[in-house]
């Protein structure tokens, strides 16, 4: 089953014509951009949604969890489905579901409707980024693979940059519903391109897909110590950073340091940091091993979080958060490189399980932050987050160093 899936992916992703392969890769960048645009555009609008739908800001922040939980839960299923039925089918269906759910979210009469539609958006997004990364890993090897994966990530975070910045800047004129309508327009355009331009692979003789086969394949992955290190690191570090994003507006307003507009720009700083990493990834990969990238990223991120906890003016906080973004993705790209080498035949499943761990951390952490900020205070909570990030980074780097030396 997995060998056939690998053959199919090569037919999709690396056709004889170079122009066709370039088109597929370019479309994957576009899909990463649009899915992130739709996912994160509400992050700086917590207060506006709270006021309009008459719910607490802490409750509105759970919209991030509503995206992350289904994104995570669909991963163990979408990876094997992509391997078996074709990654092109997964991406096309996901783009249309994301477009429709984002459009409908602009017309909800109550918060529970918005929460439900964001759940659908999260499930749809789960079929875009991880599958795109698996296709890129099939297309390229070595440092080229990590650079291209970094560019997929860069496209996603340019989408976050565009969504967060656009939302924060225009919400005063069009409202949060207008923001969702604008985002859905972009996603509809990408869905149309996916349906027209992503080629269909020739039919293959496939055996039946069974739960037993899926479990056996995942069992193969989890017998690898490196898989546990990849997934545990992704869970902890994503929770620390991505769980914080919905609270940026809350933190700025409580400190009388800004509102939705400033929160959007601070989040944009995080995305700019990821862009800076993607642009320098080739140079960094020539200088640092993956374990060194992990520990270096942990140190940069932890130190930056400590300074962010001091509550400087929002302009300086934006600069600090750009350094946070650079450090985070310095580490994250190294982990993605490790994931790509876990199994060639089970690559889609390996990426899907990494996405599951990543988003599980993102889904749980807003709950913890929501409890910690009112009871422990913003500064103490952020310093604890910095210490946690640094500790996990050191342990992860050490584990990969030992496993590389032992050849496991």
Detail the topology: elements first, then pairings.
Layout: H1 2-13, H2 18-40, H3 46-53, H4 57-60, H5 63-73, H6 75-85, H7 87-105, H8 111-125, H9 129-139, H10 142-197, H11 211-222, H12 225-242, H13 248-254, H14 260-287, H15 290-308, H16 314-340, H17 347-376, H18 378-406
Structure description:
By secondary structure, the chain is mostly helical. It is globular. The protein contains 18 helices and no strands. Helix 1 packs across helix 6 (75-85) and helix 10 packs across helix 14. The model is unreliable at 1-18 (pLDDT under 50).
Short description:
This protein has helices at 2-13, 18-40, 46-53, 57-60, 63-73, 75-85, 87-105, 111-125, 129-139, 142-197, 211-222, 225-242, 248-254, 260-287, 290-308, 314-340, 347-376, 378-406. It has 408 residues and is an all-alpha fold.
Tertiary shape: globular
Structural class: mainly alpha
Oligomer: single chain
Number of domains: 1
Number of helices: 18
Order of helices and strands: HHHHHHHHHHHHHHHHHH
Compute the average pLDDT. Answer: 84
Parts with pLDDT < 50 across at least 5 consecutive residues: 1-18
CATH topology: Growth Hormone, Chain: A
CATH C-level class is Mainly Alpha
Number of strands: 0
In helices, the fraction of residues equals over 70%
- CA(first)-CA(last) distance: 25 Å
What is the annotated CATH architecture?
Up-down Bundle
The biggest sheet, with number of strands, parallel, antiparallel or mixed sense and barrel status, is: none
Radius of gyration: 20 Å
Strand content: under 5%
The fourth-level CATH homologous superfamily is MFS general substrate transporter like domains
């Amino acid at each position: 089953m997995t060998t056939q899936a690998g053959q199919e992916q090569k037919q999709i992703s690396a056709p004889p014509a170079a122009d066709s392969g370039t088109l597929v890769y370019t479309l994957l960048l576009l899909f990463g951009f649009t899915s992130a645009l739709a996912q994160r555009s509400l992050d700086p609008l917590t207060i506006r949604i709270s006021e309009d739908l008459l719910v607490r800001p802490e409750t509105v922040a759970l919209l991030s969890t509503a995206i992350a939980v289904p994104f995570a839960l669909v991963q163990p299923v979408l990876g094997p489905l992509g391997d078996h039925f074709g990654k092109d089918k997964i991406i096309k269906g996901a783009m249309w579901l994301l477009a429709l759910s984002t459009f409908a979210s602009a017309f909800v009469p109550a918060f529970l409707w918005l929460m439900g539609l964001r759940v659908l958006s999260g499930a749809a997004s789960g079929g875009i980024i991880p599958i795109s990364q698996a296709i890129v890993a099939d297309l390229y090897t070595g440092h080229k693979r990590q650079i291209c994966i970094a560019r997929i990530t860069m496209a996603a975070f340019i989408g976050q940059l565009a969504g967060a910045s656009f939302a924060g800047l225009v919400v005063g004129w069009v409202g949060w519903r207008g923001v969702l309508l604008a985002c859905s327009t972009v996603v509809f355009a990408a869905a149309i391109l996916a349906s027209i331009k992503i080629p269909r692979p020739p039919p293959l003789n496939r055996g039946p897909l069974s739960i037993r086969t899926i479990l056996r394949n995942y069992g193969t992955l989890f017998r690898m110590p490196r898989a546990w290190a990849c997934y545990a690191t992704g869970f902890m570090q994503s929770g620390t950073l991505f769980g914080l994003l919905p609270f940026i507006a809350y933190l700025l307003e409580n400190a009388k340091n800004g509102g939705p507009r400033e929160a959007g720009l601070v989040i944009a700083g995080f995305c700019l940091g990821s862009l800076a990493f993607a642009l320098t990834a080739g140079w960094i990969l020539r200088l640092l091993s993956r374990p060194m990238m992990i520990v270096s990223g942990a140190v940069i991120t932890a130190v930056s979080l400590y300074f962010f906890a001091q509550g400087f003016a929002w302009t300086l906080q934006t600069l600090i958060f750009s350094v946070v973004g650079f450090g985070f993705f310095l580490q994250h790209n190294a982990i993605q490189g490790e994931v790509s080498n876990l199994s060639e035949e089970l690559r889609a499943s390996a990426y899907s399980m990494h996405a599951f761990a990543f988003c599980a951390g993102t889904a749980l952490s807003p709950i913890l932050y929501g409890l910690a900020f009112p009871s422990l205070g913003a500064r103490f909570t952020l310093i604890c987050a910095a210490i946690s990030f640094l500790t996990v980074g050191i342990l992860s780097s050490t584990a990969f160093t030992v496993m590389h030396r032992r050849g496991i």
